[in-house]
Design a protein that fits this description.
26% helix; alpha+beta; Membrane-bound Lytic Murein Transglycosylase D, Chain A; eight-stranded antiparallel sheet; single chain; 5 domains
Length: 444
């Protein structure tokens, strides 16, 4: 039977229309997922044990942007799962009713499980009563196993070891004490300090230099008499130690014990880093304090005076604005590090907010760093008048480049949890002359 030409023509038109619609749908979907790769559970890079959900989302958008910003030919290089700018995000396993697991529905995240205990990370809003109920273990046994003294003092990101039964609380306690002893032993030991001279090149910033040598930026400030506000002279030499810490000049009456207490580090670490055979100190000598940070903490009067000067320098009327709407989850000052568990000086404040929420410039200035910065993750640093800088860390996405002039309240990044972080938040710092200060004293 011969098919009429009109019917053939209609069929071809219909087929073409279906093809166009299908192609458009595919392109639209691809556009929405641009830069994001779905990776199955057949990992070859050792990630299989870290992700229990069967697959992860690999967020490569910012990695590709980084390569393009730096002028690299993105067509000639493949992204790797080991790249710092590739973020691995486990997709939540569905609940029994088929709905995705929600962060707000759980008080903890299970990380490691053994025969006697499981290690969990306390989520936002987590309480011991919720953890006790979800694990079928009494609050008393959880407190016993983790040597907790106050059941109401849990913090987001805190690690707890939960006995699998009431009978294993003692075994869990022994393991927790062993971990603490190992952590203390590690903090008491430091490598002998070695210093390398680095010659400043055109375009260098202290933030970039710190990242290059895998050091905390506080180390660069604490080992050199420079600040980000200073123009780094090409050819100038700065000191780069082989580990984080600061150099101090010994004053009259200072001892190893007093310095250790002042900077919240162990005396043994000071002696180890400086290859000391006894704890005697000579006035005027230079001493390296491993893991220490410099901060504006000498006196309340001095702190208030610096804060007043900073506010007036930036703007007599407006001062500094909040970078994001959220709740402070960690204050400025001495604390127990939420990830490492070691004693630490927190050089800023952490403001908890949902992933993707817009971060704005706290004050008008110029972007001097936009990129990855060690434990800070994706970070923006802005230079302001009067040798003042602000830092915005752990971002999921950066919206401005180095050299960009920004206004107060202008969008510069988005909230994330990159770098050494326990959850979505912004680590916000204010520095005067390179020295961190309590942001609360200048925020309005």
């Amino acid at each position: 039977m011969k098919i009429p030409k009109k019917i053939k023509k209609c069929f071809l038109v219909l087929l073409l229309a279906i093809t166009v619609i299908f192609s458009y749908t595919c392109i639209s979907f691809a556009a929405k997922r641009a830069g994001t790769l779905w990776y199955a559970d057949n990992f070859d890079d050792g990630y299989a044990d870290e992700f229990s959900g069967g697959y992860v989302v690999v967020d490569a958008i910012d990695a590709r942007s980084k390569y393009e910003w730096e002028g690299a030919d993105s067509q000639n290089g493949d992204l790797s799962l080991m790249d710092d700018d590739v973020e691995l995000i486990e997709e939540g396993a569905p609940e029994e009713d088929g709905s995705p697991a929600s962060e707000d529905q759980s008080a903890e995240r299970a990380d490691v499980v053994s025969g006697d205990w499981k290690m969990i990370t306390v989520e936002a809003g987590g309480t011991l009563s919720k953890i006790s109920e979800s694990n079928g273990i009494s609050i008393e046994n959880i407190m016993k196993a983790n040597e907790l003294t106050d059941q109401h003092k849990l913090r987001e990101g805190q690690t707890l070891y939960i006995p699998v039964s009431e009978d294993t609380a003692g075994v869990t306690l022994e393991y927790v004490r062993k971990l603490k002893d190992e952590a203390v032993a590690k903090l008491k030991h430091a490598l002998p300090v070695e210093v390398t001279d680095y010659v400043i090149k055109n375009g260098d910033t202290l933030w970039q230099i710190a990242n290059t040598f895998n050091l905390d930026v506080n180390t660069i400030f604490g080992c050199n008499k420079v600040s980000e506000g200073d123009v780094l002279k090409v050819g100038a030499i700065i000191k780069i130690p082989n580990q984080d810490g600061i150099f101090v000049t010994v004053k009259s009456g200072q001892t190893v014990e007093k310095l250790a207490k002042e900077y919240d580090i162990y005396p043994e670490a000071i002696m180890s880093a400086n290859s000391m055979t006894d704890d005697s100190l000579k006035q005027g000598t230079s001493l390296f304090l491993p893991g220490a940070k410099v901060a504006i903490t000498e006196s309340v009067g001095k702190t208030n005076a610096v804060a007043s000067k900073v506010k007036n320098t930036v703007s007599a009327k407006k001062g500094f604005g909040w970078p994001v709407a959220g709740k402070i989850s960690s204050s400025y000052g001495r604390r127990r590090h939420p990830v490492r568990g070691s004693r630490d000086f927190h050089t800023g404040i952490d403001i908890r907010a949902p992933r993707g929420r817009t971060i704005v410039a706290s004050a008008a200035g110029k972007v001097v760093h936009s990129g990855w910065m060690g434990g800070y993750g994706r970070t923006i640093v802005i230079s302001h008048p009067g040798n003042v800088t602000t830092l915005y860390g752990h971002c999921s996405k950066l919206l401005v480049k180095v050299g960009t002039s920004v206004k107060r309240g202008q969008a510069i990044a988005q909230v994330g949890s990159t770098g050494v972080s326990t959850g979505n938040h912004v680590h916000f710092e204010v520095r005067s002359g390179g020295r961190p200060m309590n942001p609360i004293t200048v925020l309005r």
